[in-house]
Protein: GTPase Obg
Organism: Ornithinicoccus hortensis
Amino acid sequence: MATFVDRAVLHLTAGNGGHGCASVHREKFKPLGGPDGGNGGRGGDIVLRVDPQVTTLLEYHHGPHRTATNGRPGEGGERNGAQGEDLVLGVPDGTVISTRDGEVLADLVGTGAEYVAARGGRGGLGNKALASPRRKAPGFALLGEPGETAEVVLELKTLADVALVGFPSAGKSSLVSVVSAAKPKIADYPFTTLVPNLGVVTAGGNRFTIADVPGLIPGASQGKGLGLEFLRHVERCHVLVHVIDCATLEPGRDPLTDLDVIEHELAEYVPDASLGGIPLADRVRVVVLNKADVPEARELAEMVRPDLEERGLEVHIVSAVAHLGLKELTYALAGHVQRARDEQIEIEPPRVVLRPKAVDDAGFHVRRENTPDGEVFRVLGDRPTRWVRQTDFGNDEAVGYLADRLNRLGVEDGLLKAGAVAGSTVLIGPEEDAVVFDWEPTVASGAELLGQRGTDLRLEDRHRPTREEKRAAFKDKMDAKTAAREELAADRRAGLWTDQD
């Protein structure tokens, strides 16, 4: 089973907002105490955060579906629903978050760096929050918004100061194992290293990280072998070290040819410019002629060293097995890394730019569309879409409240300007989740027959009857009952025994 995964696709679903509550306060001698429904809680977000304890994306490879908790609905007695907990997913340092189309959303570098990949839905307002001097008794509440859904691609680009590149079986893993505490797999066959190996090297007072990249072959930048999968791990490295096998017996292989082949593959690979990457051919490069413990290899290394130095390259002759030349190599690499760190431009935090809306921005627009079913008018905008999602269409008063909000926003005027007439098909929201209705210029619901929307006539009557009025009303009630009994007795004496319905 693989223990290292550097790419994973996540399917994220943020928490839904809790529904608002429609409730009326009741207590003894006060049957209509006014609305007291609480608001729904906000749904939980899904946050990707750099965790130094996480070194691979293996967990998300096996479990790509993640869902945050929903907000709780509001309750009576002005009790708001609890908010959903945010789901924090730990990712390794150097993780790039992008879409399926390759658009980079975030580059998480540094412990604690985070990105909100999916936001939770807003909680719906209860009828207590919807009450106003004109709407004293709302008989409805708003629904909670659904949480966002997202599909993101996580790609790990190893953060190392020095990268070892070269042909398979050139001795890169052996070199990492002797200069650091890393214990990579070492064997005498090609492509022993299938995943990058990281090690920490200490040279004097300097510490730097070194990465062993799987072996490259001709055509690696176009996807041959394992090169294309792991060349991205050297994008962030300050120094590239060419490890060349001077003891190879393969025909057509020699140090100069191996160097030219790898240099060509590095030049063909194009780093992601959006992440601040620079071409690999422009990095500091050091040549390491390995396996100098073999006499023939040592002679070959001494022979090609002048040619490599004429190209302006720094050359070191080492032996990972015999531990020859390793101290000089580590101190030289430490110097290159320190100079690269000193020259590195400090990244300034992004400025917060405020972009207020234009004065004539209505917050929505109406688009006229021709579909196979005929002409339709689509209303697009954040507020109309959010209002529609929060409306309980099983409640006439809630539908009327939505109509009032849309009219105040100017949607009705926008439809008229776009050419809509009574009976036109209107869609509010995006194509995949739109509400469809036949538009009428004046939207009315049955609740208006009971008075102004959001009012209750029983709340307007504040008269409290006196004791004399109560006694008079009781006497009238009893007199009416006595008259009814006398009328019924007279009918029976007359021989009429049929009960009246």
